[in-house]
Amino acid sequence: MSKPKIYPELTGQFWGRQVPETDESNAEQLRDSLRDNCWEGRVPMDTKRERIKQAALEIFSSRGFANTTVQEIAERAKVGKGTLYTYYAAKEDVLTDLLIDGLTNMGQHIEKKITTLQGSAARLRAIVREQLRYFHEHQSLCRLITREVWGHSDQSSSLAQRVRSGYIKMLQEVVENGIKDGELRSLDSHTVAAALYGMVSMVALSLKDLPSDTALERVEMTLQELIFSGITTPRMIAAEA
User: How many domains does the chain contain in total?
Assistant: First the structure.
């Protein structure tokens, strides 16, 4: 059975790579390449580059891009400043590398979970669940994206705009399909998409010290209920009608 093309943004334009929609073989080859070269969870091909990226991720996520110098990244990575410049022309390039690689990994993770699901509501639930779990497991990346993509600085504004619009577009398409199919209420799809992402991201940032997987599951259940059922009781809804 051929793989349905549900969300081209997850493996193409949104993740910083252009994938011709008419060429499935090219798309599959790109997905394999990205999976093999993803920077998290693999044996690094170039340890110095990986140390630079990890150091930058730690400092950017805690202190912010604008407040970080190349010298600080080099010192944290235990490489010379000149060595860093052999890999990256400027710290902006390190940020771009981190965001594209991290978001590519997250996109592939989410894509695997939603490809076989039927219905927009089921897909949205899966996206919320997997984004929450991914960001909980990658706290530094979550902080980096929150700082530099959603509350972005001038230095990263171009990349931030591309990432932001791509992810919102993906969520918005799911919401619009749900409205069209009668699964979701007829609300402004862009506002719903932005609210979904923002809510999940902020919750993920607050989960640093959860004691167990069971605690994470409770948070996930509460978030799902809040998003899909609301916070008011039927009695209050009837009273306000």
Answer: 1
